[in-house]
Design brief:
This protein is an alpha+beta fold and about 375 residues long. The chain is built from 13 helices and 16 strands. Strands 3, 4, 5, 6, 7, 8 and 9 form a 7-stranded mixed β-sheet that branches. Strands 1-2-15 form a 3-stranded antiparallel β-sheet. The longest helix has 19 residues. The N and C termini lie far apart (about 50 Å). The structure holds adenosine-5'-triphosphate and magnesium ion. Its EC number is 2.7.11.1.
Length: about 375
């Protein structure tokens, strides 16, 4: 084995999310050339991506993460040339602005995993650009942006999702996770959070960002790693404390996202009163009774769910957030439970109006949809 290298970075993005990236990064099991050659991906020139995004125009920006801006662009997939806006294939181009090893390592890890994995609930990586200092990634465009935008952005561009669509998105994300944890993939995702759950025009959820992913435990054995990487608020307590990592750490993060879906509140918010800043701690006492859960539900979806459905999702969150990882459900169990909940919901009249209607582009119909540019219809 070659030598390991250490990097110590704390990366903060515009939402003040703090990524934990104090890391000892082992050498990749495959060389960079091997990864780039074996991935079934297209290699783009910087010039093509610059033209495709209209010179990385500010009004093409879809969002920003710790590693750079994400732009909307257009390409011709056959010729791999830039296309005129509104023609060809719509893409999302992530441009890394992080210099140094960490950004490059995550860029390569993303290619390593997404170049090999394929599932309807994982975002599709179309290609990449590696030219001089430029590191870019080219993804399928997810027209409704991230779950984070829908839950937390207070603007006319992003409307809050209704209850049924929240369940649909949670189910899609659970299916993505179940695939990652399956014997076919054996991947621990490590960065499950609202901003990494992207939503397409039909509200199908797809997981993105595999820069922190890691090969999963073989035969149920767990990793003990000096690496602690993820996002504060979502990372499982045992992982934060000891670096002890199993696929059940992803399930904890799923539980945090379920709480965010229920309450419409971010998992950590320093602007809330001190006892409410950490959502998991604040919400726990409210999660076990039908009466109490109503106190913390997102006021924007009042009347769209039965108290039975709300408490079932809350119970699922409680199980995911179990302090002892072995008591957390598997991703397959999450899928099953959320499918049952969806069936239950279909049988009830609540929110039927919203889902019974066809969603029509970005126009407001039934369930609220995007009505503006960012992440939607630039
Ligand atoms: N394929 C895509 N299609 C549409 N929008 C996207 C796509 N990928 C990313 N975005 C938008 O860009 C935003 C930033 O994404 P990015 O993955 O860079 O960072 P993040 O997940 O918000 O934060 P972090 O760096 O901590 O992972 C997303 O929240 C989303 O709104
Ligand atoms: Mg992301």
């Amino acid at each position: 084995m070659g030598s390991c290298f250490s990097v110590h970075l704390t990366i903060e993005n515009s939402r003040n999310d703090v990524k934990v990236t104090s890391a000892t990064v082992p050498p990749s099991p495959r060389s960079e050339d091997e990864i780039l050659q074996s991935a079934n991906l297209k290699s783009f020139t910087f010039n093509v991506l610059r033209t495709a995004t209209r010179n990385f125009r500010p009004d093409s920006v879809l969002g920003e993460g710790g590693f750079g801006l994400v732009f909307k662009g257009w390409i011709d997939e056959q010729s791999l040339t830039a296309a005129r806006p509104g023609t060809g294939t719509v893409i999302a181009v992530k441009r890394l602005n992080q210099e140094g090893l960490q950004g490059h390592q995550e860029w390569l890890t993303e290619i390593n995993y997404l170049g090999q994995l394929s599932h309807p609930n994982l975002v599709k990586l179309i290609g990449y650009c590696l030219e001089d200092d430029h590191r870019l990634l080219v993804y399928e465009f997810m027209s409704r942006g991230s779950l984070e935008n829908h839950l937390f952005r207070r603007s006319s561009y992003f409307q809050p999702l209704c209850w049924n669509l929240r369940l649909k998105v949670a189910l899609g994300a659970a299916k993505g996770l179940a695939y990652l944890h399956s014997p076919a993939a054996k991947v621990i995702y490590r960065d499950f959070k609202c901003s990494n759950i992207l939503i397409d025009s039909n509200y199908n959820a797809k997981l993105s960002d595999f820069g922190l992913a890691k090969d999963g435990p073989v035969d149920g054995k767990s990793h003990v790693s000096t690496r602690v990487m993820g996002t504060y608020g979502y990372a499982a307590p045992e992982y934060m404390a000891t670096g002890h990592l199993t696929e059940r750490s992803d399930i904890y993060s799923f539980g945090v996202v379920l709480l965010e879906i229920l309450t419409g509140k971010r998992c950590i918010d320093k602007n809330r009163p001190s006892n409410e800043q950490v959502l998991v701690d604040f919400a726990r006492p409210y999660l076990s009774s039908k009466r109490r859960i109503l106190h913390i539900m997102d006021p924007r979806i009042i009347g769209q769910y039965s108290s039975d459905a709300a408490i079932r999702v809350a119970n699922l969150a409680v199980r995911c957030l179990a302090r002892e990882p072995k008591y957390r459900p598997t991703a397959n169990e999450l899928v099953k439970e959320l499918e049952q909940l969806q069936e239950l919901q279909k049988g009830s009249d609540i929110c039927r109006k919203e889902t019974g209607r066809k969603h029509n582009g970005n126009k407001k119909v039934g369930c609220p949809t995007l009505v503006g540019s960012r992440g939607g219809s630039i």
